[in-house]
Amino acid sequence: MTTMRLRPQGIGLILGLAITVGTSFGPVLQARAQGAAETLRVANPVAIVSLDPFGAKAADQPTLTVAQEVLEPLVMRQDGSIVPWLAESWENPDKLTWTFHLKSGVRFADGSPLTSADAKASLDRLIAEKGPLAGLWAAVDTIEAPDEKTLKIRTTQPVGTMLSNLTMLGIAPAAKIRDTAFFNAPYGTGPFKVAAFTAGQQVRLVRNDSYWGEKPKLAQIEYRYIPEVSGRITALENNEIDFTWGLPPDQVDQVRGSQGLKVESFPTYSNYYFWFNSSRKPFTDARVRQAMWHAVDFAQIQKDLFPGTATVAKGPIPQAVFGSSVQKPYAYDVAKAKQLLADAGYANGFETTMMWSSQCCTAVREFAETLVSYWAKIGVKVVPQELERATWLDRLLKLDWDSTLTDGNTLTGDADFTLARLYLSTAKRMGYANPKLDELLLAARAELDQGKRAELYAEAGRIIWDEAVGIFPLDMMVHAAYRTNVTGFKPTPNAMPRFDSVSKK
Amino acid sequence: MSVAPAAPSPHAKSPRRGKLDLRLLVPALFCTLYVLAAVFGPFLTHYDPVATNTSQRLRPPLTELRDGSLALFGTDQVGRDLFGQVIAGAQISLTVGILTLLLAGTVGTALGVLAGYRGGWLDTVVMRLADIQLAFPSILLAVLIAAVLGPSLVNVILVLALTRWVVFARVARAQTLAVRVRDFVNASRTLGASHLHIVRHCILPAVVAPILVVATVQFGLVIVAEASLSFLGLGMPPGTPSWGISIANGRNYLVTAWWISTMPGLVLSALVIAVGILGDRLRDRFDPNLTTR
């Protein structure tokens, strides 16, 4: 197989070679062309800046999109329910203990066997890095590996989200887990391993030939970052790439009309949201935040800017997520907005800033400019700040901002992932602190009865919505566009396409 | 916009005095039109860069909008009138162009005259600095500095002035070197005139004409540079109606709504071409080496 693989210089060079020396090296090139048919060329909509899913990028979609092909979790969420994956079974001896039995015969891509020590090391590092996912594991007391195939997690209180949290934990080899160089070309037990990675530009995955499960049909996946939407569409139409996703609404129709291309739209766990920094004036006052919400006609924006690509949100998390709820909508009411501002002591409005990442989400600049326009009508002058993603993320985590527009993805499909990860006062993500909300979220996390959990999340969602911790305008659909010779793609609502079942004709 | 300026031919005969010089007049008229549009246009179009109207987005040129007004250039991706946007952009472009040239021209000429008049180590230092800077592509340098300073009007002017002073300095120095050994300068010196007097009354008058010609040529380049920086998100802050930003906004709509990028692009090209021809013509007229032909 190795001889058929494309060298890192890429297809362009090989095509060039084909033209110049085609006659003399015919058979070799034929073999290489066959390799090209087994290579899926993907253009990701957001740059992949890191392949380390344990560190600061642990909740970063671009990183996880690649990591999920390489590092596998103990359990997986498929069609809404949890299924065994690297762990073949588990039990709760008591409410505070989880015992997992690992599948035997699973090996990492380098040939070393998977043991419970690897799972322990992976979870240890995720917690130690204090990254964006560490909050999910706050209740973990001890992690033990009593024998090679058993992992025992003890918690300080019952954790109802243990399994959905574990779907997010890819297992990496314990020997490499703290080696930063390893994450330039990580490998795990997954169907693919990383062959080459250039931060922000491209990632090349090759098939893990010793994969324990059903072997993928693709020999290679090449992720290229093409920042321009028009560039991505052109590349797709010109057969330079096979697959892309995250297309803005205005461009979807153009692709739909193209021959040889297929568009698939599906609802997701993601939504657009706008956060106020509630620790900064004037957003410390809930009336100001509510006024900002009442000032915008989101139904109109959805109709004009996101036709068929988003729906007006009914709650702070998308309806497809476990624990979602339907809240009382904020009416578009300029007079009420002005009244609320006046009540809060800002009758003449105020000036503030709104930041967003330039690579963030579909039609983000259009959306942001429209919001700024609506707010100008109630006397609130919002200075837009379009930032490069790394800068934006850095400022976001440091709480160094007034307001921000972004999209969120409830990666685990469980309300806890979004609500308790972001809105607990200890998370310090948007400066909002409410002991009542903390209590609800922690109670829901500790509850093993899923029905009761759903009720608690509905209550928590109501507080977040009514207090206008943020504005939750739209639940998003994702559009994947691919060439018709790509088959076997199965959309997942977490909007991170997987390619292990995909093949190319 | 339909009046196409006559193409310049490099070996055109010098016009006789008193006759209409179309190659000077047409581009000059064009530039005047831009200045008038920039100064008075905003009063007529009432363009508000913040106000969006999503229900009337992506309307093609010459569409009548719901309030009865005519969108001459169409509307952009959030429903703002492109004509108003382009006029407001003219204001930004001309402001940046003029202020940058004033700054770069003053600093560059001063340094150039000083270097040329004084000579010695000062000349070496200033001109080698200029040479080093010229070795870098000016737009690359501008991108580098702009990325550090962040987007704002003042920063754009500073950045562009920093990349342009060299051109002025070199011309001013060359002219100074040529003039300072002329007989009338030597005569003044023999009569006891101070350095300041000589520079003011003998050197500067000789430097002004070529500097003005250089300024005209540079004007177009500065405007393009501003648009390029803004296009890259390093020039004017987002939300300002700079031509570069308008063009960048339309990138994703080139197939479905070509006018968003095309209209500001055409207006930008027309201005740069007009200024270019004007500068060319002025050089033909004022360059002492050419008038003797």
UniProtKB/TrEMBL annotation, chain A:
Chief subcellular site?
periplasm
Mind telling me which residue stretches traverse the membrane in this protein? none
Keywords attached to this Swiss-Prot or TrEMBL record, sorted alphabetically, are: Signal, Transport
Report the locations given in the UniProt record.
Answer: Periplasm
Q: Which domain of life is it from?
A: Bacteria
The Solute-binding protein family domain covers 82-427
Name of one Pfam family that matches = SBP_bac_5
Q: Which InterPro entries match?
A: Peptide/Ni-bd, SBP_5, SBP_5_dom
Q: Which family does it belong to?
A: Belongs to the bacterial solute-binding protein 5 family.
Q: Which PANTHER family match?
A: PERIPLASMIC BINDING COMPONENT OF ABC TRANSPORTER, PERIPLASMIC OLIGOPEPTIDE-BINDING PROTEIN-RELATED
The protein's name = ABC transporter substrate-binding protein
Q: Which organism is it from?
A: Microvirga puerhi
From TrEMBL, chain B:
Alphabetic keyword roster: Cell membrane, Membrane, Peptide transport, Protein transport, Transmembrane, Transmembrane helix, Transport
SUPFAM superfamilies for this protein: MetI-like (SSF161098)
Q: Which family does it belong to?
A: Belongs to the binding-protein-dependent transport system permease family.
What is the protein name stated in its UniProt record? ABC transporter permease
Instruction: Say which species the protein is native to.
Output: Microvirga puerhi
Tell where it localizes: Cell membrane
Sequence intervals crossing the membrane = 24-44, 92-117, 153-172, 203-236, 256-278
InterPro entries annotated for this entry? BP-dependent_transpt_permease, MetI-like, MetI-like_sf
Q: Which residues form the ABC transmembrane type-1 domain?
A: 90-279
Q: Coiled coil located at which positions? A: none
Q: Does the keyword Membrane apply?
A: yes
* Organism ancestry: Bacteria, Pseudomonadati, Pseudomonadota, Alphaproteobacteria, Hyphomicrobiales
| Record has Phosphoprotein as a keyword | no
Q: Name one Pfam family in it.
A: BPD_transp_1
Membrane-topology descriptor: Multi-pass membrane protein
